[in-house]
Structure formats: structure tokens, C-alpha cells
Amino acid sequence: MTSPPGGSDQGGSTTEPRLPLTCARCGTPAAGPGPQSVTWTCSVENGIRRYFCDICSRENLRAIEGRLDSSWW
Fold it and tell me: What is the pLDDT of residues 27-67, one digit of tens each?
């Protein structure tokens, strides 16, 4: 079973990052509070949420779909 957006599969409350949110790959800052932009990608790697900007997401789409950790990109 999957959780709704913003939810947690482990239960309990989640602490979402607020400003400043930056891309975990290139460091580009988000334009607004939190990952509100639908073009950003959220990945959970080793239990840590990592956010990637739309450019990094597009450039690494195959690796993301192959469920490779960002360290492999």
C-alpha cells in the first residue's frame, strides 16, 4: 500500500523541508516554499527524502525510472 502525497509509509508525522529547498544534485534553489512545483522530483534514498529540480530530473529520467540512487547518476 502506498501513502498519499506528503504522507509516510512508516506512519506518524513527517517533517517536510521548508525554504530554502535546493536540488540535491545541482543545488538550484526552489522558486517557492516546499516542493510545490510539479516539475520537481522527490526520491527517498536510505530513508532520506531528496528533491531534484526539473532539469536534473529530465536529464536522469532513465536512472530514476530504473530506481537507481542518485549516487549512480
Answer: 999 876 655 567 888 888 889 999 999 999 999 888 888 87
Q: Torsion over CA of 48, 73, 64 and 18, rounded to 10 degrees?
A: 40
Q: Could you identify the residue written with the cell 501513502?
A: 3
Please tell me the total number of residues recorded for the chain in this structure: 73
**Three-class DSSP category at 33:** coil
> Can you tell me the distance from the alpha carbon of 13 to that of 69, in angstroms, rounded to the nearest whole number?
25
What is the three-class DSSP state of 37? coil
Question: Which CA distances in Å does 45 have to 24, 31, 33, 59?
Answer: 11, 24, 22, 19
pTM: 0.61
Q: Which of 26, 18, 14 is nearest to 55 (CA)?
A: 26
Nearest to 40 by CA among 55, 62, 26, 27: 55
